[in-house]
Amino acid sequence: MSHVAHLSLQTKPGSFQKVCDRYHQFAEEVLASHPDLHDVIIVGNQAQNIVEGFGIWENAEQAASLEDTADFAKFLADIEANLAAPVGRNDLLVFYRMRPKA
Questions:
Q1: Cβ atoms of residues 41 and 53 within 8 Å
Q2: Residue 12 gets which letter from DSSP?
Q3: Angle at the Cα of 29 (from 25 to 33), degrees rounded to 5?
Q4: 29, 91, 31: which is closest to 59 by C-alpha?
Q5: Which among 4, 29, 41, 44 is placed 20 to 30 Å from 21, CA to CA?
Q6: Cα of 22 vs its chain's centroid, Å
Q7: Residue 96 — pLDDT band, cuts 50, 70, 90?
Q8: Residue 73 pLDDT greater than 70, yes or no
Q9: What angle do helix axes 16-33 and 70-79 make, rounded to 10 degrees?
Q10: What is the pLDDT of residue 102?
Q11: ∠ CA 19-46-52, rounded to 5°
Q12: Terminal CA-to-CA distance of the chain, rounded, Å?
């Protein structure tokens, strides 16, 4: 069963796109260096200044280990001044995953 690491970021007004762009950069770096990370989905609601990311991992241990890396710490440091609230973190399980049509 796959594991989903979910981050929720409440941005300050005017910082939405900056946080989205930095999150995208971070996700590309993580995908390139963590073979247990299968997919990353980043979604947002600009009207509410909310950016959310979902990383689908092979297992929970690999997902949790990301938080102990220098890359994760740098990502948080880079966006901290643009956040209106602390980062929200959830752990979820994937029960069903459908393949998109080509």
A1: yes
A2: P
A3: 170
A4: 91
A5: 4
A6: 11
A7: confident
A8: yes
A9: 170
A10: 64
A11: 55
A12: 24
State pLDDT tens for residues 8-26. 999 999 999 999 999 999 9
**CB-based burial of residue 98 (10 Å sphere; 0-12 exposed, 13-18 middle, 19+ buried)?**
exposed
Structure token digits, residue 90: 């959830």
SS3 of 37-55: EEEEEEEEECCCCEEEEEE
Extract the tokens encoding 87. 């980062």
Residue type, 86: P
24 Cβ contact list (under 8 Å, min separation 6): 42
Q: What are the tokens at 97?
A: 């995953």
- Can you tell me whether residue 61 is helix, strand or coil? helix
Contact 4, 94 (CB under 8 A): yes
- Which of 90, 25, 39, 38 is CA-nearest to residue 64? 90
